[in-house]
## 1
Amino acid sequence: MLWTRTTKLIVAPIYLILISNGLINSLYFYLDAGAQRCFIEDLPLDTIVNGKYKGEEYDNTKHIYHVNPQLGVQITVTEVETQEKIVNTRGIPEGKFTFTSHGAGEHQICLRTNYTGGWFSTPQVKMHLDITVGESRLDQDYEKEHVQDLAGRVKELNNRLQDIRREQQFQREREIQFRDLSEKTNHRAVWWSLVQIVVLFYMCVWQLRHLRGFFESKKLR
């Protein structure tokens, strides 16, 4: 859960909009120049957090908020239990930051405005902040292993499919060979039958001529 802790008393009213959709916290608040506001975020171990911020300075003449390039934003992230600073950087009026929780527990996210426009200028700043809490590395590792397992299964199925295709190709080749052999065998059988018929025909003719000659010789006697 997200809650605020101020390190400097601010007279100006604070307007907060919180949109909770599981892993996203969006809000905006008002700061004076040089003021700081902190938030506590309870995070699991090895969790990636992405932050997006934008500071808008109030223009008293135009009565609007606009981004002033001279406005800087100091961002610090501290692990509450160990007081270890995970992030300590000064950014531009609009930017992003990312960190990974080193331990499970509360983490303090602080934003401070650093104005370089002059000593006597203390404009009011409207700060927008979006915090996205990503998945932990353990979940990412699990998903990676799951994806690798699925990839391995897909590869195994592809190998089996290749084996089936090779077997089908082998069967087709054997069918072609068997068909060619059958055609050759049938062709030889037909020719052999024709040869037998021709031989039988000539034998019949020879026997008839032989018998005819035999009877003619007997008749002459």
## 2
Amino acid sequence: MATTTHHRRSANEKNIDELHADTHYWDEKFHFHSEEVSFLKSLLTAPVFKGNIPNMYEKLQEFYNELIDLKEEKMELHEAMRNHKNDLNGMMECEDISCETFYHSQHQKLAYRIQEHLDKFKQLKLEIYRFSTPLLKADNPENLS
């Protein structure tokens, strides 16, 4: 699998190929994001937690609901990203700087929204890990060695 280097340059400094590379990078991130959400939903509903912990199931349900909300947000962003990717082809027809600036501005706005979403997801994963790790049943820890 090819590795994409994600540049930290402003969208206004990027050419059309670099903007397309960004959308490819986002697409890969969203694909992996989907796999993580599926795993975390399975984890939160699996019978792998110790019993008799006050409010544990309510907290697990809260995490599950947050995952559902983030999954829906990701689907909306993924659709916006696909539309943006198609719109970038119109940038090749630009004849003036204001036209190019429009596409670059749209790219920057989408990049910000996607990064904000990925940051929220990263924070939720951290909360799930911190909450659930000490509550996992450990029938035979020697099996992990």
## 3
Amino acid sequence: MDPLEDGFLDRYQRDKQGDLSDLNKLPISNPLHPLRLGSIPSQISEPSRIPNSTFLRTFMARSTLLAIASPIVSQTCHLANLPKETFCTILGHLPPSSASSLALTCKGFLAALGNDPFEALSRDRYETYVLLWFIAKDLSHQSVCHSCNRLHNNETALRCYRDGKNGCGESQKRHKALKCRLDTRLDWDYKELLDEDFSPRIFNMAMKHSLHNPDCEKFLNALSGECTAKGDWHAWIKESQTDCRILRGSFIHRTQMVWITPTNNRTSFGLAMEQCAHTRVCYMNGIIYTRSYGLSREDDDADSQSLLFDWDSPETTLNLLKCRRCSTQCRLTMKPLPVEGSGMAIYITRWVDLGSGTLNEKWQRYFQRGRFEFEYQQQPDSLFLSSVFEHDGGFRSKIEDQRYASLFHSPVPEN
């Protein structure tokens, strides 16, 4: 997840940060806050001479950056004896993030350079993020929050996210999770395309954790779950269950959902269910069909399918649908309820490869609307994403044998 990838700069606008004299008054979005973490053990002691600067005396004395300044570089390094003007000339050719990194490699550098590289860093939110990203690359348990420009400890962030997801009252942990927007349900634009509890921040942390430790069960469990929605959809009931796996550096997300109507719903009201930004599954008056968007009109029409529901068939399954604009694959199954004249159930299973993080092309294409110049190239090993999951996790059994058994099983006649 390299922050220098194409398109990244558009997300982090450079802005002024205001007065630095009182850090307690800085807004949560200020990039100076993320560096004041106390969770990383100090590796070196505080340098004997801190430059005479309000910024450094207030900020750097407790800074995580100072705490992790490399002890490998000798503190009597000959470069530290170079004139300050020479250092400034070198740093003048570097972006603020790189200049700050160089200043923090040695106590002598830090003492000689003073406040200059950090003042430039404090005025640039994007450069602050890049510096954090450099640091996080070497710290397996730390990840950068794209939203509030902080370094988050993965375990702490995961715990805060779970508190928010489980609705643990107005606890302090829940308040912190919402304040730093770890719980991104507040600003999630495409809830229906994954699920309302999915957090891109935790997703990025899971992918980073997988690089150092293959055991990602805690993260995968946090990003999975169940949802029951008995809303006013003209007698339709919706239930869903999500699961995820990490396979060869890619995050595979599966959503199983079912729409149930207890009555023969032949009304003017149908269903429209988005599977990605380019594929929609629709049902109306006994006909289920798919619509595709994103390529030419001819290609979109060619990808569309339709099927008349057979009320006399035990169940009907459509061929596996593969979006030609992103990695989405889905399968539809329609099943009539056994009681004559009753309704039906529509099962939809969706698999999507979200790549290695939110900066990955697979993630971005999944949510990208509009026209594409070229179609998505399916990789040979991703032809059937369903093979990543061993079974359905008991989803259909929960629906048909437990929660809605009275709808799916004919009553046993009394003797």
## 4
Amino acid sequence: MNAVVRLLRAGWEGLFGLLLLVAAPFAMPRVRKRVRRLAGTAPTSLWRELTWLATPLGLLLAVFWLDLALAGLMGVGMPLLFALEGDGELWYQWVVVDDLAGAFFAVPVGALMLWVAWRLAPRFVRAEAWRTRRLLAPSLAERVEWLTETRSAALDASALELRRIERDLHDGAQAQLVALSLQLGMAEDMLDRDPTAARGLLLEARAGAEAAMAELRALVHGIHPPVLSERGLGGALEALAVRSGVECEVALRRRLPAPLESALYFTAVELVSNALRHSGASHIAVTVDDGVVLRVTDDGRGGARVEDGSGLRGLQRRLAPFDGVLDVSSPVGGPTVVTVELACASS
């Protein structure tokens, strides 16, 4: 139902919006593209979701099963009900029960109804599950299109990350190493003529080497923090909480594959950084359960929207290859709750 919810959040309210939503599969290509951009899915998916909403088969089956089970219980308990009623008359399945023999006759009928209800329960559940899968599950074409988009996003993100690493190495550690080489060459030339000046250059070279090492460590930390390899996602999030001064609750008791841990960790880092920079929050909490569901909450000014900037959209692109879902609840005035769930992590 994410598509319908996204359309409502985008402001498609009132009769016109509803008519456009229903007519989207049959509308002109321009309208279909507009609906797809807002809903994040194809108009045919919207139509199937609306069909699922308009046909509450599960509710009807549940009401029928409950009526059958209650009728069975009433039949089994008819002798007791008749004894409590005294000399009065009772109705059971459109039949008047006016004596004890009739009350006992209702017992096997009620038992049969209970047996039928017991046998029908799993079949009703499977029928509703089948209907839900047929209407709400993505079609093969939609799935292929989604995988194509996420693969493209993953390749773009990988290329962007490689360019970032190359730029950081070129502008940071490489420049410092070039300066270090020049300082060592100058010190070598001055070693015999001016040992004091050569010593000063060596000290500067040592400081430059330490700065280059720090730059490289920061770069490695930005690619894959060592704490993530050593202590897993839970330990890395706890370390993040200590560094950032935020509250952290970890209920994750298992290790995840390294790509999943890295994606969740850097998502948490960006969400916490955004909250610290932009929300004006006095309290930020990070929680992760064994589901695996990551949740970052802050009591800031709220009003955050995925459509407003590239930060949350970038997170969506980062999570897409993992079938990740990012949900933002941020009313004006707060609080803001960002929930991240990776489908492949919970399996």
